[in-house]
Design the sequence.
């Protein structure tokens, strides 16, 4: 307490005594004993009242005992019942909770985990993935400032996430092993790598990774099946020295649509688990044959760069013609590229407008903008006879199709005549102009759509330099070619832009969560968050129909479907109150990720225990585990002293006490006739 506060309190006490003295003793003829009581009441009531006005701060000291935290992480995935360990885990958790010595020493926190961590001791063992790394990391963050050892009850088999044996845990980890620790011979299809899409009659690569767990030399056969027919097979041999093989083959896509395949390896003698001997995958086959015509007024390196980029997709072919040599029909092509058009393109543009053909216009130093402006192509430029170099800025708000930033701002600027660009129709800008470091809202590449016609405009020549720069940056033309390919794919497509788009995978493993998202726009193709969307799901085998609403999450409508049985499903997403819907389908395989293992992963759990400063225990070592925790002197109760500072005026009882003193004084004076 400060010196000035003590001085104020002293003055308050003296003032209270003086006032009470003058009231009950100064020049008072009668010296009755009751005056002493009244003097005392007056002194205390006045002193406490003034003390409340001074409002000194009172410091109090509190002692708090903090026990160490014992975090119990329980594997809640479906691999636990697969190893028939459900009851054993529940029994150990119950035993830990009811151990009085353990609960006296520790504050117990019980979590269960599969692909995520939950604060609960309610166990269902239906998790379809196991992420031990995420569970350990999350608990470490929760108890970052505590002494909180971790008990990890698991079989040690992780299906997703980073490798947990290399985790840097601040807390000591004690793994408790559940599951069969006996190692059996086992073959498994661990991974299938394949592109999601292929073109009709094209060959697509398939890469399959096969693993063998055993010491004997075994011979088996690997096959790929499609609609019950073998499309690829190969005899293989595994041994103690050669436990892994990568099989690469090229399959031919013969049927349009989603095609389902099964990669399977033949069972070997004494193999216990054959559920991991096969894995399904799917490929969507697209029947896309695109012919592109480049009509040029001038010869330029851009034309060769565009041709190479477009033809990097084997389903696309490019013909280059000078406008005065073109004799074919425009209807033979899905896309026309007009390179630096001038007045000689008048008949071509008239035919394009009449046939509603899709086209891409590339302007440059030789472009006749006066001619283009007269043609009323929904965009114009007030060009002058002076050129300007335009750098590129990636527009993050571009929504027409998915296009990543491939480093446009590092590419050489494009050259075009200087002037302001205006549009008379709604459009989307993929790239914006950067003039000598000044970022503008003027377009460099724009797309627009009207009356089922798609138009693209590149405002500048010199795009061949972008292809060269892309190669220098990445040692590949792939990024640039894919960028041009995306432009061509969108502009050449005759598909009308849909207000409702639905995204989902074609293939899901058993017990997995099926995520389906939908993007719905208004008539101006702006995202509409006011709508109500519903999905109608049909099991093709049982014909069972389920209707469920989609939830609005950020800028999309989403739903998670769980506990669906294996099989093929079709669905229909409806916009309620609108005649708008979208159809789709997917397949749930019988393959269960959590049932691919034949034994508990003791090796990794041992490495984890050693790295995290703990010790490995088995499910039958519960007494040893509890004794280890109780005897460990690193886990002790910490006594914490807390000093709290509180204003006296917050003590309300003092105010009531003051009122009581004044009231008592008044009644006594009234009783003895002193009022």
Sequence:
């Amino acid at each position: 307490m400060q010196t000035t506060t003590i001085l104020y309190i002293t003055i308050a006490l003296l003032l209270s005594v003086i006032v009470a003295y003058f009231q009950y003793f100064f020049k008072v003829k009668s010296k009755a004993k009751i005056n002493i009581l009244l003097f005392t009441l007056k002194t205390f009531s006045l002193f406490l009242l003034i003390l409340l006005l001074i409002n000194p701060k009172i410091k109090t000291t509190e002692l708090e005992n903090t026990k160490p935290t014992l975090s119990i992480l329980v594997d809640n995935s479906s691999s636990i019942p697969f190893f028939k360990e459900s009851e054993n885990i529940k029994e150990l958790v119950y035993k830990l909770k009811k151990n009085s010595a353990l609960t006296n020493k520790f504050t117990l926190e019980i979590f269960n985990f599969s692909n995520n961590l939950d604060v609960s001791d309610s166990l269902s063992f239906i998790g379809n993935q196991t992420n031990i790394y995420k569970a350990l990391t999350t608990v470490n963050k929760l108890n970052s400032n505590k002494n909180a050892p971790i008990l990890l009850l698991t079989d040690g088999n992780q299906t997703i996430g980073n490798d947990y044996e290399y985790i840097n845990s601040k807390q000591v980890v004690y793994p408790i092993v559940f599951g069969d620790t006996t190692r059996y011979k086992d073959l498994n299809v661990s991974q299938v790598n394949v592109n999601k899409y292929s073109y009709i009659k094209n060959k697509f690569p398939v890469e399959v990774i096969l693993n063998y767990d055993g010491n004997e030399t075994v011979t088996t056969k690997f096959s790929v099946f499609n609609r019950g027919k073998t499309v690829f097979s190969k005899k293989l041999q595994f041994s103690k020295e050669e436990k892994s093989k990568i099989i690469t083959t090229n399959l031919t896509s013969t049927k349009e649509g989603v095609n389902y395949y099964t990669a399977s390896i033949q069972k070997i003698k004494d193999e216990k688990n054959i559920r991991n001997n096969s894995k399904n995958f799917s490929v969507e086959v697209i029947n896309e044959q695109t012919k592109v015509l480049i009509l040029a007024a001038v010869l330029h390196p851009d034309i060769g760069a565009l041709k190479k980029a477009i033809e990097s997709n084997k389903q696309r072919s490019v013909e280059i013609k000078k406008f005065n040599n073109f004799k074919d029909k425009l209807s033979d092509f899905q896309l026309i590229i007009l390179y630096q058009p001038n007045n000689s393109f008048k008949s071509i543009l008239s035919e394009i407008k009449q046939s509603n053909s899709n086209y891409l216009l590339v302007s440059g130093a030789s472009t006749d903008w006066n001619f283009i402006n007269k043609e009323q192509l929904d965009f114009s430029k007030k060009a002058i006879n002076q050129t300007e170099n335009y750098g590129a800025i990636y527009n993050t708000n571009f929504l027409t199709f998915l296009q990543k930033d491939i480093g446009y701002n590092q590419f050489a600027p494009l050259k075009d005549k200087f002037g302001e660009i205006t549009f008379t129709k709604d459009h989307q800008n993929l790239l914006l102009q950067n003039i000598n470091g000044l970022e503008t809202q003027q377009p460099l590449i724009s797309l627009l759509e009207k009356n089922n016609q798609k138009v693209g405009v590149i405002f500048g020549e010199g795009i061949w330099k972008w292809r060269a720069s892309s190669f220098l940056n990445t040692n590949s033309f792939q990024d640039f070619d894919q960028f041009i390919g995306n432009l061509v794919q969108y502009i050449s497509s005759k598909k009308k832009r849909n207000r409702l788009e639905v995204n989902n995978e074609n293939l899901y493993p058993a017990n997995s969560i099926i995520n389906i998202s939908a993007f719905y726009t208004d008539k101006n193709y702006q995202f509409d968050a006011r709508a109500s969307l519903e999905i109608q799901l049909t099991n093709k085998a049982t014909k069972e129909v389920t209707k469920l609403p989609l939830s609005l999450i950020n800028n999309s409508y989403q739903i998670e479907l769980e506990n669906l049985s294996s099989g093929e499903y079709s669905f229909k997403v409806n916009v309620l109150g609108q005649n708008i819907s979208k159809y789709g389908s997917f397949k749930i395989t019988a393959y269960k990720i959590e049932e691919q293992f034949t034994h508990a992963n003791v090796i990794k759990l041992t490495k984890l225990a050693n790295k995290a400063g703990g010790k490995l225990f088995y499910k039958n070592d519960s007494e040893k585990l509890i004794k280890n925790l109780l005897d460990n002197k690193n886990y002790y109760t910490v006594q914490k002293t807390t000093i709290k500072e509180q204003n006296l005026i917050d003590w309300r009882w003092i105010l009531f006490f003051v009122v009581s003193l004044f009231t008592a004084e008044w009644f006594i004076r009234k009783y003895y006739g002193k009022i």
